[in-house]
Specification:
This protein has helices at 2-28, 34-39, 45-55, 61-73, 87-122, 127-141, 144-158, 173-206, 210-217, 222-259, 265-274, 278-306. The chain is an all-alpha fold. InterPro entries: BPD_transp_1_N, MetI-like, MetI-like_sf. This is Peptide ABC transporter. It is a multi-pass membrane protein.
Length: 314
């Protein structure tokens, strides 16, 4: 187990370093001068050069990369060019909305996927299976921002059941939760559809095992064996994907937060891009990358604990 853990840890570090380099280079090639954007088009070259020196933007790219990644590793993400406050505090403030939104979306994803997968697996080859999987395919194919706009049109503008956008703050918990329902549903629908298909496949595969046939021979109905025996073992790959979906939902909130005008991490990234606040964009995107890679690492370790075969050297 120690060797496996060391190998996965080295892969984790290599992945983080490679991702940080890609993020830095991708942000650096975005056209536009942050200092010029902040000072306006009428600023003199001398003023622009002075601000670039103050922000450290006159240093060579490799020096700026090393300075940024060293600060990120220690929790010091630098100062925002636009807001002139620590980037770490700015991101932490926005995560107070993005993390609850992601958590609600994950709960809704599970609530959608479990009954859908069970119904489809129980009625394999029948009309219910075809209908559920057809709806799931539509859920996978249609972008979540389109779902978001439909939800706003129907449930917010037509029926007035939920607010169309904005966030009242956590000082009003009921109103805050209500403001997050539609964004969470828009995030959860595509991921729930994916998870439902995975659960259906895992259940069908599990139903072919010997112990399921034994349970059926003892008088268990197909549905009873499905729920009482197959579901528990079929949840192993489902839980793996569910863990990965938390990071996917957190990253996917970038678009949804802008659709609903929510002051979360996604909207911060969008605003920082438009203002050429590179240090905020780099740090926020890198944080999302770390979340995805860290969840993958934890999933690998959990799998190795469950299945000893994964710990054996090839």
């Amino acid at each position: 187990m120690g060797r496996y853990l060391l190998t996965r840890s080295l892969i984790l570090l290599a992945s983080l370093l490679a991702a940080s380099l890609v993020v830095f280079l991708a942000i650096e090639v975005v056209p536009g001068d942050p200092a010029r954007t902040m000072l306006g088009m009428n600023a003199t070259p001398e003023t622009v050069a002075a601000l670039n020196a103050q922000l450290g933007l006159n240093m060579p790219g490799w020096q700026r990369y090393l300075h940024w990644i060293a600060g990120f590793a220690t929790g010091d993400m630098g100062m925002s060019y636009t807001y002139r406050v620590p980037v770490a505090g700015l991101i932490a403030e926005r995560l107070k909305l993005s993390l609850p939104l992601t958590a609600i979306a994950l709960v809704l994803t599970t609530a959608i996927a479990l009954p859908a997968g069970l119904i489809a697996a129980a009625g394999r080859g029948r009309a219910t299976d075809t209908a559920v999987m057809g709806i799931a395919q539509i859920g996978i194919a249609v972008p979540n921002f389109w779902f978001a706009m439909i939800l706003v049109l129907v449930l917010a503008l037509k029926l007035h059941l939920f607010p169309a956008g904005g966030f009242p703050g956590w000082s009003h918990p009921a109103a805050a939760f209500q403001a997050l329902v539609l964004p969470a549903v828009a995030l959860a629908l595509p991921q729930g559809a994916i998870l439902a298909r995975v659960l259906r496949s895992a259940l069908i595969e599990t139903m072919g095992q010997d112990y399921i046939r034994t349970a059926r021979a003892r008088g268990r109905s197909r549905t009873g064996a499905l729920v009482a025996h197959a579901l528990r073992n079929a949840l192993i790959p489902v839980l793996t994907i569910l863990g990965m979906q938390f990071a996917v939902l957190l990253a996917g909130a970038i678009v949804i937060e802008n659709v609903f005008a929510l002051p979360g991490l996604g909207r911060l990234i969008f605003q920082a891009l438009s203002q050429r606040d590179l240090i905020v964009v780099e740090s926020a995107v890198m944080l999302l990358v770390v979340a995805v890679i860290a969840v993958s690492f934890v999933t690998d370790i959990a799998y190795a604990l469950v299945d000893p075969r994964l710990r054996r050297p090839a």
